[in-house]
């Protein structure tokens, strides 16, 4: 199978339900940003690979990348235009299990961190700074998904997960800085 199909040469691309839309459609904006998010997570994991203290965080980030693939499937299957089989195949976190997992991870890292009393600037070494960039991309992904959840084109749980994920990435970045023994620069 060739990597190029030429089906998008005229500015459209296909969704999981077979529908074709313009490449700048809101769905593809959301898909592209979640793809950028998972790529940034991959970069962050590469920075973490140099440190044994980062191994558990790498496992968590890999789980998150897999969840983001599932989110992409949900986004690529507009709820109102897809058949029951496709909808069932692309459900995302209806019982909020993944969201709860993120909350548990957040709580665990947060217990290890000094209380936050001032705004911090992205800093604290390459793993930490990379996780802050990833958090920023996550916030953009959330903004791109919001219109889709509001209009019922993807499940609400997708937006909830992205919201919680940005919180997780924030505490993970802080924890990475602390694990490196690096001070976080503060806003003055």
Compact summary:
By secondary structure, the protein is mainly alpha-helical. The chain has helices at about 25-50, 55-75, 85-90, 95-110, 125-150, 155-180; strands at about 10-15, 20. About 35% of the residues are buried.
Task: Give an account of the 3D structure.
It is a single chain. The protein is mainly α. It has helices at residues 26-48, 55-75, 84-89, 97-111, 126-150, 156-180; strands at 12-14, 20-22. A two-stranded antiparallel ribbon has the order 1-2. A hairpin with a 5-residue loop joins strand 1 and strand 2 (20-22). Helix 1 runs antiparallel to helix 5 (126-150) and helix 5 packs antiparallel against helix 6.
How are the elements arranged and paired?
Layout (H helix, E strand, L loop, with lengths): L11 E3 L5 E3 L3 H23 L6 H21 L8 H6 L7 H15 L14 H25 L5 H25 L8
Defining key terms:
188 residues, 2 strands, 3% strand, elongated, 61% helix, 6 helices, mainly alpha
Strand content: under 5%
Spatial shape: elongated
Class based on secondary structure composition and strand pairing: mainly alpha
Biggest sheet descriptor:
2 strands, antiparallel
Helix content: 55-70%
Contiguous low-pLDDT stretches (5 residues minimum) are none
Averaged pLDDT: 96
**Spatial sequence of strands, sheet with the most strands:** 1-2
Gap between N and C termini, in Å? 55 Å
**Series of H and E elements:** EEHHHHHH
Counted beta strands: 2
Q: With helices defined by DSSP (H or I, 4 residues minimum), what is the helix count?
A: 6
Query: What is the alpha-carbon Rg in Å?
Result: 18 Å
């Amino acid at each position: 199978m060739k990597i190029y199909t030429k089906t998008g040469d005229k500015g459209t691309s296909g969704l999981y339900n077979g529908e074709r839309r313009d490449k700048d459609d809101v769905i593809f904006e959301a898909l592209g940003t979640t793809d950028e998010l998972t790529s940034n997570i991959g970069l962050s994991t590469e920075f973490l690979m140099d440190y044994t203290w980062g191994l558990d965080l790498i496992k968590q980030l890999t789980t998150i990348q897999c969840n983001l693939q599932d989110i992409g499937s949900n986004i690529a299957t507009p709820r109102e235009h897809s058949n029951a089989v496709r909808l069932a195949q692309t459900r995302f976190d209806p019982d909020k299990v993944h969201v709860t997992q993120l909350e548990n991870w957040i709580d665990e890292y947060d217990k290890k961190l000094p209380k936050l009393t001032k705004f911090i600037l992205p800093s604290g070494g390459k793993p930490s700074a990379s996780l802050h960039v990833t958090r920023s991309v996550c916030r953009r992904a959330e903004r791109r998904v919001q219109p889709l959840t509001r209009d019922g084109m993807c499940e609400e749980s997708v937006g909830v997960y992205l919201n919680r994920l940005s919180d997780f990435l924030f505490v993970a970045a802080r924890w990475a800085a602390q694990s490196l023994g690096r001070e976080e620069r503060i806003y003055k």
